[in-house]
From TrEMBL:
InterPro entries: WD40/YVTN_repeat-like_dom_sf (IPR015943), WD40_repeat_CS (IPR019775), WD40_repeat_dom_sf (IPR036322), WD40_rpt (IPR001680), WD_repeat_multifunction (IPR051179)
Protein known as: WD40 repeat-like protein
Pfam families the UniProt entry points to: WD40 (PF00400)
Transmembrane segments: none
Biased composition (Acidic residues): 12-49
Region (Disordered): 1-50, 342-364
Species whose genome carries this gene: Cryphonectria parasitica (strain ATCC 38755 / EP155)
WD repeat residue intervals: 145-187, 242-275
Amino acid sequence: MSSNNPHHDPATGDEEQDMVDLDEVAEEIAAENEDGDIDMSDPEDDEHEEVQLVNDSVAYFDTHKDSIFAIAQHPTNPNIIATGGSEGDADDAPGKGYVLVIPQELDQRDDGPVLPPSYAADPSAAARELASQKENIQIQPVFSIDGHTDSINALAFTLPNGDFLVSGGLDGRLRAYKVDASKPSFTFLGESQEVPEINWLAPCPNTDYPNSVALGASDGSVWVYTIDPSDTATPLQIVQTYFLHTTSCTAGAWTSDGSLLATVDEDSSLYVWDVWGLAAAKGLAGDNGQTVVSLTGQDQRFEVEGGLYSVAIEPRGGYLAVGGAGGAIRIVGLPRITDQTAGSAPQAGSKAGKAKGKAAGGKAAGGEAQAGQILASLEVQSDSIESLSFAPASAPIPLLAAGSVDGSISVFDPSRQFNLRRNIQGAHEEFSVVKLEWVKQPQGTGSGAAAQQQWLLTSCGMDGVVRRWNLQGATPSQHAPNAAVAGLEKEWRGHRGDGEGGGVLGFVQGNDGKRIVTAGDDGLALVFQV
């Protein structure tokens, strides 16, 4: 190593008359060690730690210059992916996003087990063909998402058909693009800037109100927009605005029928909004005429000191879960707005719904009397709950999975008083779990495959790894000390990992979970074949 304070030996006589080149002096001095002695060892003998780089991806996208904060997948063409982040790591770097299309050649590519090349008639040719088949494909963007002066923090395709792409930024801008998925092509429609920063976007699944999207802002406000391209002056039309949150609105989720919108904030408040007036029409809206559920930290039974940061709604709409600081989870009943919620919520205080710990009484499952009731208070994990996910409606048991900053994943069984079904300690080692999502059951799936798929859960974390878990057969209160004994079915590596700067900040997995596309803190989007 070069010394920061080179030591020069003065000339001891007139024997050396030639001038010595300064570069040569530097090279000689570089051989000295910290004690000023000459290092006589051969540089080739130095032992260097060998770093094993593992990349399980079949394709990659590396155009981003900094972290990818957001990722979204088109609802009808899952090969269309949008990613969002910033143009660089400078404080004044503008937001930047891209749209990419997964190459069709991956659809025909078989990454399953194959016979060794030595089994072929021409082993060398078979080896070359195998290598070409496994070659990692670089994906180029088909469209750039510009116009944000700060990082793009959220992306969403509208439902039900993905007619529009919306981007939300830390600059408070909401920008909309018309999508032609057949080409694909994207056309900018317009923007709205009403808030300081946009924290999240959630497209509404209600087919009676298509192309609507909700957002939560850093000032606590909640906005619902509908996109109407026929109005060229104001294509982004404000449907509702809500201002009951007093601190940053951290997360939001729609019921699966899009009738209600639930939001949470850093001050431990939960509001469930009657966006379309469906609850009011049935006399179920609160005194403020805006909400069907209003819970704040002033209610000590509900309070989560440190705030709430995640929310998920049971697919049949009977109840929801919110997660926050200290590993706290609250289960809250919802009113029955449509037929889909009938009988879907466990009764508070009943054998099917009494939580381990605190519970509240109620009457009709998912009915008016149970709306706003705290059905359960769960505290298994030791740090903030960053992600919550309910198993899809097709599953016989609507299991609830919770991912924590402490690196663990806990799975609860609502049919057994919300008992702990499995606690996977160190699911992502000591690094935070960022996102959880159950694999959906695609239409037309055979009964055998469907029975297997309903137990599959995908997770990503700041360790840079994506993992797939099979929770079939997990017994109540089963604790798993590590991933090896917790039902880990498969994992995929390729991101840098090791915490900040290398984790996976999000992923999409389509309707069948057979292909996973990630958003990396290292600026990479990787494609993994399951």
